[in-house]
Amino acid sequence: MNSSLIPDEYLDKIPKLYSTENTENPTVYLKFFHSCNNWEWYVTEYDGEDRLFGVVKGFEVEMGYISLSELVSNGVERDKAFTPRSLNKVLKEVGCEYL
Q1: Are 45 and 20 in contact (CB under 8 A)?
Q2: Of 4, 39, 57, 89, which one has the fewest beta carbons inside 10 Å?
Q3: What is the pLDDT of residues 21-60, one digit of tens each?
Q4: Cα 91–chain centre separation
Q5: pLDDT 10s digits, 72-86
Q6: pLDDT-based confidence at 96, cuts 50/70/90?
């Protein structure tokens, strides 16, 4: 699934699923948000179709899998001002020192 949430220039940059699981501080490439509930999603990996992996900031902050099609169907937007940065930096920004 190619979605307008993931710009073409990121399709080859975002690592495939499981490829950074032994990386201590992977890069977060994209941030998505929902304006009505303040949830945020930070992407570190992508299977190239529908499954993403990264940080989910909802009721809690946790690492997990994310469905791109669910984000699209629920009106989630991409933060166009977000620039790629380290996972540790993102965790500090969302108020979580570690997971």
Answers
A1: yes
A2: 4
A3: 999 999 999 999 998 998 999 999 999 999 999 999 999 9
A4: 12
A5: 999 999 999 999 999
A6: confident
Q: Which of 61, 49, 68, 52 is nearest to 18 (CA)?
A: 52
Question: Rounded to 5 degrees, what angle do the CA atoms 83, 17, 56 make?
Answer: 55
Asked if residue 39 lies in contact with residue 64, where contact means CB atoms within 8 angstroms, the answer is no
| CB-CB contact of 44 with 29 (8 Å) | yes
Contacts of 57 (CB under 8 A, 6+ apart): 39, 40, 41, 42, 94, 96
Helices marked H in the chain: 8-11, 68-73, 87-93
Contact between residue 82 and residue 90 where contact means Cβ atoms under 8 Å apart: no
Contact of 76 with 42, CB cutoff 8 Å: no
